[in-house]
Amino acid sequence: MNVSEFLDQHFHHFNARETVQAARVYRDFVRPDGGGGKMMVTLAGAMSTGEIGRSLAEMIRQNKVHAITCTAANLEEDVFNLVAHDEYRIVEDWRALSVQDEVKLRDEGFNRVTDTCIPETVMRHLEARLLQLWQKAADEGESHSPAWYMMEVLRDETLKEHYQIPVENSWLMAAMQAGIPVFVPGFEDSTLGNIFAARVYEKKVARHDVYWSGTRQMEALIQWYQDTAVDSPIGFFQIGGGIAGDFPICVVPLLIQDLKLDIPLWAYFCQISDAVTSYGGYSGAVPNEKITWYKLEPEAPKFMIQSDASIVAPLMFAYVLGW
User: Fold this and answer.
1) What pLDDT was estimated at residue 308?
2) What does the angle CA 289 – CA 295 – CA 300 come to, to the nearest 5 degrees?
């Protein structure tokens, strides 16, 4: 049996049942002959290092994803993986690492994310390419989104010789080719964001504002939501929590409460997270809490899957794709 058949046959209770039902509703929501909806997908954590592009890229190509909001780490790590995958190091017994083991990894030029170690060399490779773009933008008085710069790197034909995985597994390449927007709030909280700040500090780049600010990105999101909502309900599929989820979901209360516009709320919501409901926490807040903030329609399908997104998200994407 394929993945979808397996899930239908075996996932009947608890988080398993919630997973299949959320995927089933997602599948129907974006069908042209069903809801005809559009879907925003948000990426927190280190999903790109977890190679979510293997399934997410096909979701984009099959018109199942229509916008992405991600942390800057997920933006850069998709490209890191594309050009340096074979140089990564996997530490199978990562829970047993000692302080001395961690120091050894550091001194060998690796940055560890759970069991996966990213080589420092790929960061410097991308920095060299981006520095030219930053300097050109500063000299010409231009300003662009974080995603625009990374897509410019992907457009460079000289990058192809460095590919170490099939380019079809890059979700950012798929997003660029499909022309869907990618919003990246909090760009400064990333490796390349830190490097950019360092280059401005030492005057190698003349201006900070070659990057769009967060509010400038919100302006672009406002326009996308208004334009999309004219013809389609819009859903929200959240992987993890934090700024990747909170930034884009807030566009609806902004439109309704701050701009006083008559605009539909998010019409589908699903979050995969291991965060638990706590006192004042956002990432583990139950979906119904979002109703009071003018984020979700009261009647919208709402799902909260408390599990490991690196396991659950590919299964759900496979179900939506009919794999």
Assistant:
1) 95
2) 80
Note the pTM of the prediction, 2 decimals: 0.96
The 10 Å Cβ neighbour count of residue 258 is 10
| Interatomic CA distance for residues 218 and 213, integer angstroms | 9
Q: How many CA atoms lie within 13 A of 250 on its CB side?
A: 14
Amino acid at position 312, single letter: V
- Secondary structure letter of residue 264 according to DSSP: P
Instruction: Give, in order, the Cα–Cα distances in Å from 300 to each of 174, 264, 268, 295, 319.
Output: 29, 11, 5, 10, 20
Measure the CA angle with vertex 181, ends 136 and 185; round to 5°.
75
Whether the Cβ atoms of residue 273 and residue 303 lie closer than 8 Å to each other? no
Helix, strand, coil % in the chain, rounded to nearest 5: 55, 15, 35
State residue 224's pLDDT score: 98
pLDDT in tens, 213-270: 999 999 999 999 999 999 999 999 999 999 999 999 999 999 999 999 999 999 999 9
Q: What angle, 0 to 180 degrees and rounded to 10, lies between the N-to-C axes of helices 72-84 and 146-155?
A: 10
d(CA 108, CA 120): 9
217 CB contacts (<8 Å, ≥6 apart)?
145, 183, 184, 185
Q: Is the pLDDT of residue 286 over 90?
A: no
Question: Tens digits of per-residue pLDDT, 168-184?
Answer: 999 999 999 999 999 99
Report whether pLDDT(278) > 80.
no
Contact 254, 215 (CB under 8 A): no
